[in-house]
Amino acid sequence: MRFSRLFGPTAWTVASLLPVAWANFPNFTTVPSADLDLGGLGRVALTGNFESISVYSFLGQSEITASTNGSQSLFAQLPNGAFQTLAVSDGSITAMCPFVRKDGNLFGVIVGGNFTSLAGIPTQGIALFNVSNNAVVKLSGLTGSVNAVYCDQDTDSVFVGGDFKGSSSTNAIAWVGDTGWTNMPFQGFNAPVYSIAKAANGNIIWGGSFSGLANMSVAVSTDPDDLQVINFSNATISAGPSSSEQGFSDPKNVVCQSSGKDEPGATWLVQPGVAGHWQADFNFAFQPSKIRLWNTRVNGSGTKTWRFMNNPNTANSILELRYTDPATQQETTCFQACPLSNDTNLTFQDFYFVNPITMNSFRIEISEWYGQGAGLDGIEIFQTDIFSYAIEAFNEPSCSVSGASAATAVGPWTVTPSQQSSAQYLTAKLPGPGVNSASAQVTFQPDIKQSGNYTVVVYTPGCLQDNDCSSRGIANITGTLTQGGPQIKAQVFQTNSFDKYDQIYTGYIDAGTDGFRPSITLQPLDSQNSSIDLVALRVGFTLLDPSSTGLNGLFEYDPYNASIPTEFKEDNIDAIGINLDVGASVDALLIVDQLLLVGGTFTGQNTSNFIVIDAKNNSMPIPGNGLNGPVHTQANIGNTIYLGGSFNNTNSSNVQGISNVATFDTGSKSWGSLGSGVDGPVSRVVPLGVVLSNGTTAMCMSVNGDFNNVLASGGHPSFAANGFAIWVPSQNGWLKNLGLQTHAISGQITATTNLNVNNTVNPLMSGTIVDEGYAFQFAAQLSTQGGNTTLGASGLNLQQTTSSTPLQKRDTSSDSAPVSGIYSGIFDTSNGRDLTVFGGHFQATATDSSNITNLAIINNSNNGAVTGFSAGIDTNSTVTALSVSGDTLYAGGSITGNVQNTPINGFVAWNLKTSQFNSSLPPALGGSNVTVAAISPRPSNTDIYVAGNFDSAGGLGCPGVCVFSNGMWARPGTGFNGNVSGLLWQANSKLLVVGNLSVSNTQTSIATYDATTQTWSIPNNANNVPGPIAALSPASKDGSSYWVGGQSANGSAFLMHYDGSGYETAPQLGDGSIIRSLSVLSLTQGHGSNAFLDDTLSLLVTGSLNVQPVGSVSGALFDGTSYTPFLLTNSGSQPGSLGSVITQQPQVFNSGGSQLAVGLVVLIGLAIALALLFLLVLVGLLIERHRRAAEGYRPAPQNYFEKTANMGRIPPERLFGNLNTANSPRL
User: Fold this and answer.
1) In whole angstroms, how large is the CA radius of gyration of the chain?
2) What pTM value is reported for the model?
3) Residue 250's pLDDT band (boundaries 50, 70, 90)?
4) What b/e readout covers 921-952, taking b as 16+ CB neighbours within 10 angstroms?
5) β-strand partners of 334
6) What b/e sequence results for 737-771 when a residue is b if at least 16 CB atoms lie within 10 Å of its CB, and e otherwise?
7) Whole-angstrom Cα distance, residue 965 to residue 946?
């Protein structure tokens, strides 16, 4: 194969592209099992505000937040079906392919799109992603965006197409092996490329909106009337050494001066007899195509030779110029010494740049002169690009041209220094939420002198240089480009790290006249959620080559033949494009079974927007002669082709249900539908494996685009889709309609590529995917077996209502709109029943198909039949507390309504036996924002303690806590009030109350109530709790030790353990954490005892937690030393939250009540040890005594004889007299 080299093999190019290990992708690390033992708890349910939930099983799993700022990411799919983010870009990703070299080594995945950075690495439009270590290698050299890539192992090349420039290549280029960027022999195309495919014969097929090859296109006119004048008015002008003659010393005299007059104020002169220079420094960058000079002739003086220097402070800055010699009329070039004529008949001279480059400063250095010295009468510099700048001073000078480019800015705009950008620009800081589009705007009016086809691009400065990436938003672009024509519309995300441009339009633009000026308006997009920084730099207009070299959207290229044909009709594929109506745009190419399928925006004889080309490169007839609207995307599963675009039928026949998406069977050559389609344009169809709850994977087709709903079909109603839906071919239906237990996926998938690793296909995807578990909305069952944790459905068919913003812990004082979710629950197995009751703010479908709201009763003894409250409770109510006593279900919360002509506020009673409200209902609670947060029957008693945020009950003053007994309310003691979040009975008559409380006018977070003496008190050390308590859980059988959690005054979350004598603070959770519930659970494997927890216990903390390094989680297990992520949820495109853990049976603790203080435990242990030692010694003595007795030992005599009784029998001399004799023993 033969390409012209663009860059030599540099160190970064070759050394960084090292082969990667295939076996390292995907690199998934399983996290250890939680080892929970839930068997003793019976059924367990999790509730909260979420649409999906999963168990944290793999490193890299997280509660993914969908991007709303235009940035897209690379994703790998974990074995459990969730997605792991590998790299984040600052823009869109449109194409990927694995670059496998000729030797079979994978160098990485080529990633293309409209971005300026990937994983924080600056790289414009294209990068290489190393799948072994998730590293990004920048592929510098292109300016613009990449739409298509094709990795070809046979030629050791990556073919790249898009809307970009790279050296002498335009819109098409190749990366070749170790060489790097390499020009195509035809140097690209005269318009963007949108798709690339490889035909069965090995040729590369290019599709786009081009009409010719770049090296065969006729140059766009360079007539002065078609050039744009650079504005000097805001430039810094300097010169030297200037003449001291009055009126001739100011170098600004020659700016906006084209009269050629030699007079003071219109001419600049150098001091006589010396060389000089004239310099201009700008606040914006430009690429000049021509410089025009007027020579002076004051007193016979004038410039004779000169040179042009770009950025005079750098080396090698002299530029080569091309000009016509006025004496010979021959075109020639100059470099060091360009001649300037002093012919009085010559008004000015034009010099063209041989190799134009971008600059923001230049100098004219004069080396020789006529007469006494040098000088100039005028200077103009031109560029072929047409720009309209947001800063008016950068636009064309009105002194030089009529109808000059202009801009009008309205709003709080300020000038921002250019730093790394090409020019200074405007910034408007707009307050939110709900940014108003009328709060700021810039209207750009270009100087369009020639009607024709143009591309329009909006330039956006990078955000890193201003450190405002987090506050950048979305710009709404509108434009009127033809007189009386339609308005164009586009959106541009401004969160790019570095400078970028977005093509917003390609098509016809009318030239400006006295009565019409084309215009583009930039404004903020309406109703953005937060305050934003809106920026405005410039809008560019590029006149497309008006000539055609014979192509029309299709081009077949032989990579082994350096000779490019000039008669394109001799190639069948090229000829198929040529035979289409002029202006064809090919957006999607696909090869299936040697068939080339072509989709786009085009018409022709007997075809429209879709063509099938066989292996012999002949166009095949297809039913309906194509489709009646553009095809933007194609993908296949087997022989079934999925097409997406903007159509609703075939071109000449009637096929039902193909609204914006359709299928085409290459075998039967027939059309098919995906239900009834969707209600808006489809931009991408991408294959996707969906993991079902049984562990199997179903191959599906994701449908992505700008649509709101999937249309009703097959007896299923229309459902909201928000631009993303999944079709299951094996079930011939939309995933949402099939009732399968699957992962909840939202966002958009923009591209995918497959890596074959160890004979296993591993997909790599891009987009804004959010997939965080099984689609169990608001409630899920939790179970364990052998330490492994599984999730199951709740048994409710729920539909989200109103907002799904995560609820702060039972937002009891808020009068805002209710937040959807399930916030309470109970399992009732008393009196022969087997019920599961859920309360919250939701809408569900009962077994009899009726709608029920905010409370659901599931009868597990009757095949899971679902019922709810009968009429009377307002639908905007929220149930946050439940309890059963006898046959009565008590429900509390923010509940209002009217039942049996009785007003309801905060608390209601339901008879489980009759399935009706109690005949005698509790009198309504009173106060502002009444909410019940806890209901707790007194042990061995019929009294029901009700707590929350209220002031009275049935007219009785009863703030915070009230007792319902025998149909009446009673106040428990006096001196107490507050907002209660939890209740815990520590004995039959001792109640622990937590929240934001006051006892005898003393603020506290904890209080106790003695039901016998009817008195309130504050426990010792309660002042150590740093803020209101939101969560409470017993830590012992009698509740004398317990856990509390909440938020301190500084907003940080706290978790504390009371051991019977004092409070111990657990390690801090990450910033932003909110604790909503606490539950002590048993383990199958011990973690080692500590001051907080026994060896076989763990504390489940739920809510909205920040656990590093994972980040946002909804449930974490605390082992007494650290937090381990356990449960992840999502709600819409944001992290969800868990509100409560419901168990059928209470946690079983070791009997004995509270844990003792550590010091006391040590003393008791020492005493026990001493006692055991004494017992051991005593037992040893008894055993020894028994042994001696068994062996015949007898006690020695205890009577004493008379000491002198036998003393006279042996005289002393008889005893000792022979000691000194010869026979005495030796000593």
Assistant:
1) 42
2) 0.77
3) very high
4) bbbbbbbebbbbbbbbbbeeeebbbbbbbbeb
5) 321
6) beebebbbbbbbbbbbbebebeeeebbbbbbbbbb
7) 11
